[in-house]
């Protein structure tokens, strides 16, 4: 940490940093924190300008943390220690340099002003929203899980007349809510040049409102938000239990909606499941359109991996690896994208080809966290329902084709999707010998190559069991 008049603030900086780190670990989860935020350290602090550097071990990690946590770090520091007015996420000068591949991914050539170095010296309205150029409707991959939310977002952003207001988008972490918010901002400004757009998290809304109260500037705060043509509020669940903030939030909502302006709010859960939020706010939220984003199914995850690979020129990923990632990383889209970034970075640094073994090595912790234990009982139930036979036939002695083939499929899937040994699988299928299981697995492998209909049935069963 830079010396010269700084010793007196070193203690408060370190104390604030410990608190901020604890809060980040609580809010983001241990996996995300340990993988990306734990390596961060305090760097230089310019007391005159109030600029604090947070140092990451590599340029790749610095770019990722800046992109995903820059605003949160800025808000956390200015709230915890007002002497810090700006937070910069920088790379350790002795760490590895970024590859051209990763530079292309994080700072597209057609958007040079979006890079940290380009934007640092540019003059811009400090209240203008900073929409990520990567988060547009064109780059948002649509499937059954998010189709309603994406369609509603496009309608609100681009249509002159909208039949609903507000739009409330909810879904778990990493499913694409923030991506849609940025896409709405981009599209609305394209459709309404010169419009006033305000975008902030509910946490920032609360902090700025409290600051306005402290500085006797509530009128300025109210005017800035209520005069917006489009107001975007992310993670509304963070105002739970904050009565004075909720009061102001309610009146802001009413002013925006009654004036015919547009309001978009996101949350990690549906309005009726939000605890600690005033009933009149929940009622107002439900007046508009409530759209959920469900967990991505296999097909959507597969399409997302393919789309993201298009933004990583030079990365050669075989179809088997793409399918492996789509099957195994199911917790969130954000985690899937992070896995792709990590694979690309490790492949670049090691020069190794990307195959399933390489991915299993690089993503060992991620894959363990995403692993869902599928039981043989589940497999037998699903297969029996699919082929419309009684589950009891899975363990019966009958050898009729309409029973034997589904039983072989269930044995095959048990070998593919569970860690059970061949003798264990045989015992669960009516005490059959392990050689019977081997025969079933080989038979189904041969039939899959020759019978497209059976292959499609097995792919469907795998998606249902793994989803």
Keywords:
9% strand, 467 residues, disordered N terminus, alpha/beta, 5-stranded parallel sheet, 3-stranded mixed sheet
SSE layout:
Elements: H1 7-28, H2 30-37, E1 41-46, E2 51-56, H3 59-80, E3 86-91, H4 100-106, H5 116-120, H6 147-158, E4 167-171, H7 177-191, E5 197-201, H8 202-214, H9 218-226, E6 230-234, H10 243-258, E7 262-267, H11 279-287, E8 289-293, H12 298-310, H13 319-328, H14 333-350, H15 356-362, H16 364-370, H17 376-387, H18 401-417, H19 422-428, H20 434-450, H21 452-466
Parallel strand pairs: 2-3, 4-7, 4-8, 5-6, 6-7
Antiparallel strand pairs: 1-2
Helix pairs in contact: 1-2, 6-7, 8-9, 12-13, 12-14, 17-18, 17-21, 18-20, 19-20, 20-21
Structural overview:
The chain is α/β, with parallel strands linked by helices and 467 residues long. Strand 6, helix 10 and strand 7 form a beta-alpha-beta unit. The protein is 56% helix and 9% strand. It contains 21 helices and eight strands. The strands form two sheets. Strands 5-6-7-4-8 form a five-stranded parallel β-sheet, sandwiched between helices. A three-stranded mixed β-sheet has the order 1-2-3.
């Amino acid at each position: 940490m830079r010396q010269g008049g700084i010793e007196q603030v070193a203690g408060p900086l370190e104390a604030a940093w410990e608190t901020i780190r604890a809060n980040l670990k609580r809010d983001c989860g241990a996996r995300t924190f340990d993988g990306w935020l734990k390596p961060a350290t305090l760097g230089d602090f310019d007391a005159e300008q109030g600029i604090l550097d947070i140092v990451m071990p590599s340029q790749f990690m610095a770019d990722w943390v800046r992109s995903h946590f820059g605003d949160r770090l800025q808000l956390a520091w200015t709230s915890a220690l007002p002497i810090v007015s700006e937070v910069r996420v920088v790379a350790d000068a002795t760490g590895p340099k970024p590859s051209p591949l990763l530079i292309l991914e994080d700072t597209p050539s057609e958007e040079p002003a979006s890079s940290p170095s380009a934007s640092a010296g540019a003059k811009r309205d400090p209240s203008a929203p900073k929409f990520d150029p990567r988060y547009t409707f064109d780059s948002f991959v649509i499937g059954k899980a998010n189709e309603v939310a994406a369609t509603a977002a496009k309608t609100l952003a681009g249509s002159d007349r909208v039949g609903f207001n507000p739009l409330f988008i909810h879904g778990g972490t990493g499913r694409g809510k923030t991506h849609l918010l940025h896409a709405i901002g981009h599209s609305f400004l394209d459709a309404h040049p010169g419009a006033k757009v305000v975008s902030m998290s509910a946490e920032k809304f609360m902090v700025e409102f409290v600051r306005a109260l402290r500085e006797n500037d509530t009128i300025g705060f109210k005017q800035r938000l209520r005069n917006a043509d489009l107001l975007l509020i992310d993670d509304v669940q963070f105002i739970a239990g904050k009565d004075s903030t909720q009061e102001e939030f309610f009146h802001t909502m009413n002013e925006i909606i009654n004036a015919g302006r547009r309001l978009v709010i996101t949350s990690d859960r549906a309005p009726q499941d939000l605890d600690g939020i005033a009933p009149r706010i929940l009622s107002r939220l439900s007046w508009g359109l409530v759209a959920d984003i469900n967990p991505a199914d296999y097909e959507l995850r597969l399409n997302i991996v393919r789309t993201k690979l298009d933004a990583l020129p030079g990365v050669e990923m075989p179809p088997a690896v793409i399918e492996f990632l789509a099957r195994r990383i199911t917790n969130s889209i954000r985690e899937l994208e992070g896995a792709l970034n990590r694979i690309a970075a490790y492949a670049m640094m090691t020069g190794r080809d990307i195959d399933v073994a390489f991915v299993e090595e690089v993503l060992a912790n991620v894959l363990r966290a995403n692993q869902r234990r599928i039981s043989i009982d589940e497999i037998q139930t699903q297969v029996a329902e699919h082929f419309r036979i009684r589950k009891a036939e899975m363990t019966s002695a009958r050898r009729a084709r309409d029973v034997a083939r589904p039983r072989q499929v269930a044995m095959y899937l048990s070998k593919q999707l569970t860690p059970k040994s061949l003798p264990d699988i045989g015992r669960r299928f009516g005490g059959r010998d392990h050689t019977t299981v081997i025969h079933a697995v080989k038979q189904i492998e041969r039939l899959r190559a020759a019978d497209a209909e059976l292959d499609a049935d097995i792919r469907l069963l795998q998606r249902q069991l793994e989803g």
